[in-house]
Amino acid sequence: MPRVAIVGIGRTPLRPLSSETSYKEMMFEAAVRAYEDAGVEPRKDIGSFIGVSEDFWEGTSIFDEYVPDQLGGALRPVCTIGNEGLHGVATAAMQIMTGQVKIAAVESHSKISEVARPLKVMQLAFDPILNRPLDFNPHVVAGIEMARFLGDSKALRNDCARVVAQNRAAGLDNPYAAYPAAIRADEVLGSQDAFSPLKELEISGPADGAVVVVLASEERAKGLRGEPVWLDGMGWANDTPTLEARDWSSARYAKLAMAQASKMAGYPAKKADIFEIDDTYAYKEIQHAAALGICKPADFRRFIDGNGPPINPSGGSLGCGHILDATGLFKLAEAVEQLRGTAGRRQVKGARRALVQSWRGVPTTSGAVVMLSSNDAGPAPAGKGAIA
Amino acid sequence: MRRVCVIGAGITKFVRRAKETGKELSFEAARMALDSAGMELADIQSVAEGTAPDAFDGLHMKAEYLSDGSGAFCRPYTRSYVGGGTGVFLGAHGWWHVASGMFDTCLVIGEEKMSSCFPHPQGAFLTIFDNFTERPLGPNLVWIFALEMNRYMTRHNIKKEDVALVSVKNHGNALDHPSAQLGMKITVDDVLRSEVLAYPVQRLDISPTSDGAAALIFCTEDVARKYTDDPVFVDGVGWHLDTSYWTDRDLYYPKYVEKAAKMAYKMARIDNPRKQIDFAEPYDPFDYKELHHMEGLQLCGKGEAPVLTREGVTQRDGDLPTCPSGGALGVGNPIAATGVMKLCEMFWQLRGEAGKRQVKNDPNTAVAQAWGDLMQVGTVVVMRRGGARP
User: Which among B54, B61, B267 is the nearest to A100, CB-wise?
Assistant: First the structure.
């Protein structure tokens, strides 16, 4: 199976407001940084541009119309993938694995500060017949799920609060973070109820930002400036979209995606030296860690006390901000920095393998996983290649 | 590179307003495709979905909502999206799932339910324009395509009568399609006398708005052999998207379609499309678009498509049948499903299973194409009947 590398990353710092720049300018800035990092000329080297976006977040229908110019993709192969950023990465990787595309760029962004009523947009994702007439706040779904998860597992409310404290503290070392803070777990538990047991501080804050990732075939990666980080495995899966039909406790989509990725990579989640996983809500980090096979909910507190590799050393979405479907790409960029040894004050020493996971948020059950190794990690163990 | 086969196809009836939900339409098409291949959902390893603007249904992240109806429960699932080009683009989307080696099988589904948009789906298109420079003018699609049609006709001195022949042909062809919404026998005069919407676009120049879904089963050659002796091959895929600034382009010729076609032809090792392609399913949401796209697809020179049409070359019994299905004009135009309908037509025609619609030239190679966005995207798929890849 042909190997694929990530050869360039570019992003704008995440910020709660970005009134000084348009989404096009943000995309341009991220793209220029990524192309510069990879050492590619978009008009000649890049064979496919993939935008990851959703019309309603953009306020424009058929949003792919507005993607090509600022990425250098006009009159070139450009398409939109209407999923999470990591699904976009998987798409680019598949295109490269066919041999038809040698270098591909994946872009996603958030300009949520310009969305007048984001909760109303989220409501429009509910089943229009069965759920939408109830007119509930979308975060209710997270509150219900958190209650069920805590009831079914040995995770504690305090564990969730510690995730917030830890991730926001980690954000203090990350120049890209929008929500860094020194905050204690008891302050989180003392914060306002969102939808009990979910506390307001356990919901990641919205941010603006753009991320571009450049991928290349093994053959092309070796000749480029950007230090390659190898894509060992990838997986993605959906569970049921129907609220009434899910088990509300486990993140089955993450488990299925992980199984596909580790089959391809030939090694399990536990081999990773760092984890950048979804923490849209604090309890989700614990739930996802369990589904991915990183650690059981009962062991989570021991794990984050230094008995396991770091989870979300970037600060995660709680510390850096949530940037819609660009969130997975941001986490991927963080993992690439760690594996290249360029993560500055948040650098995890000796990080050679990373696991990145994303979730599309309420009300979806769509998740994706990417497994990465550094250029000096040595060849990956012989995986089965893929699901096939 | 693994060669990708098509072994099953399914399509719902295209109608102005379906009682079924989008999930149900997707399910029907998927079930038919699985049945026609002799497969069960358990044999499917991945799902490639296509559906155009969320604004039609007012559903945010529409593909997530559609996922279980599309067979994606507990499966890898992605949605691709290039506006009106989505349907044929799904041929590429499904292709890379299998050609990459990631999956042995992929269920490809295009779904559209436009009727949820009241009072008319055209309203959804008010939101596709640039929010600073264009939206304040309140443009709609008929309006901008009238500009393009006018430019095309003016540049080549094409008569409206010649363009109308496409409408006559496709509406007539659709009479033989069991899924068709608007199969009918009309004359050039009917087209020319129909209501003017935005001159030169008249009522019968335009495809209807529709609800519907269509699906295909893609797989490797090894898998195909277990189910059929007669697979069809996806030998070429191509797509190109031009600048957002459509006002800066000369609209007389779709360069992006040419580029997309050349990408697909190179992959399929086609160097003389006029000779090597036996029939075509160019995208025909408007009658002039079939002509425009035949030229973009390199099936004839610039300005020559109306001549071929007038001479009967593009009829089902002609040398180069175009839209033997009845096209978007006749079968209907549920955006993302329309392109898949065209892919389905290639599958059936190449297998000789198109019944009364069967073209007479014993086809071996066919091309389908779709178009969309701000007159901006071209998506192209080349399919072949059995035999070795040239």
Answer: B267
Chain B residue with minimum CA distance to A55? B54
A228 near A221, Cβ under 8 Å? yes
Helices B287-296/B255-268 angle, 10° precision: 50
Taking only Cα atoms into account, the Rg of chain B, rounded to an integer number of angstroms, comes to 19
Could you tell me the CA-to-CA distances from A155 to A35, A83, B331, B355 in Å, in that order?
43, 30, 56, 62
Residues 6 or more apart in contact with residue B142 via CB below 8 angstroms: B122, B197, B198, B201, B206
Q: Give how far A141 is from chain B: nearest CA, Å.
A: 16
Q: Which amino acid is at A217?
A: S
Q: What is the CA radius of gyration of chain A?
A: 19
A7 secondary structure, DSSP code:
E
3 state SS for B23-65 = HHHHHHHHHHHHHHHCCCHHHCCCEEEECCCCCCCCCCCHHHH
pTM, to two decimals: 0.97
Q: What is the ipTM, given to two decimal places? A: 0.97
Structure-token match 């696991």, residue found = A355
The most distant pair of C-alpha atoms in chain B lies apart, rounded to whole Å, by 57
pLDDT exceeds 60 at position A385: no
Contact list, A3 vs chain B (CB under 8 Å): none
CA atoms lying within 13 Å on the CB side of residue B194: 19
**pLDDT tens digits for range A307-349:** 899 999 999 999 999 999 999 999 999 999 999 999 999 999 9
Contact A238 B64 (CB under 8 A): yes
Using DSSP, state whether B215 is helix, strand or coil.
strand
- Chain A with chain B: Cβ pairs closer than 8 A: 201
User: What is the C-alpha to C-alpha distance for residues A295 and A274, in angstroms, rounded to an integer?
Assistant: 13
How does residue A388 score in pLDDT terms, banded at 50, 70 and 90?
very low
pLDDT given at position A281: 98
